[in-house]
From TrEMBL:
Keywords: Membrane, Transmembrane, Transmembrane helix. The chain crosses the membrane at residues 225-245. It holds the Pfam family Spore_YpjB. This is Sporulation protein YpjB. It comes from Pontibacillus yanchengensis.
Amino acid sequence: MRRIFEQKQSRIIVLCIVMILFLVPGQVVRAETSLSELQSSTYLYLQMIKEGRMDAAEAILAKVERLTLDEEIAKIRNGPYDLNMLIQETRYTLEDEEATREERYNRALTVALYVDAHENQVDPLWDVWRGHIIELIDQTLSTEKPVSNHSLQKIYQLYESILPAMHTSLEKNDMMEVEVQQYALLKQLAERPNENRAQVLLELANVLENIQPQEKKGLTEEPEFIWLMWTVGGLIVITLIYVGWRKYRGESEQEVKSRERDS
């Protein structure tokens, strides 16, 4: 009887471990699928805005809004920037009849880069736009003295578009430098064109050139993997304790019965 009981306990342990190994990765895959669908939808919305197809953009934006309600991508809504807030700002701009196509495009770009930064921790798309901003700064400084309000506003709008995405990828010290440059640009936009704008843009270009996205975590560092290992380990420990207790109890009862027979 004891052998049969121990065999059943072993089967239960194996079955529980197999169920966890299948269920937890399945949840991770569903989350990645939802995020990938959200990412492709934001890319498509950005393309529709670029082409001026506002009716199609409206339909895609509605899909994006529905996707953000999925609990599997809750971490996006709870990130350093609130995704729902970014999408809401995008909708306001889309529905604003006075908004320019460039303003709508920059809002759409903000959402697309933010989602992409969560999906692609290695070589995120905002890194490409960082290079584009540096090139735009170099071009502006070589053709304008002092820098005009129009050019400074264009640089700031692109810079503002990549800020939420940068928040997901940069170390705290790098992000502080990035925010300092944002305040410096805003201060210059509030003033008349002057020679100081060139220095501000040079400092911005220098900061953008030196920052680097964080490296992607290894599999053993991912929260899902750590949670899986803790769960499996905890289940094994609890089951072994239970099996040991039942075995001890069975032996104790058998010893008592043996003594009763001997007496």
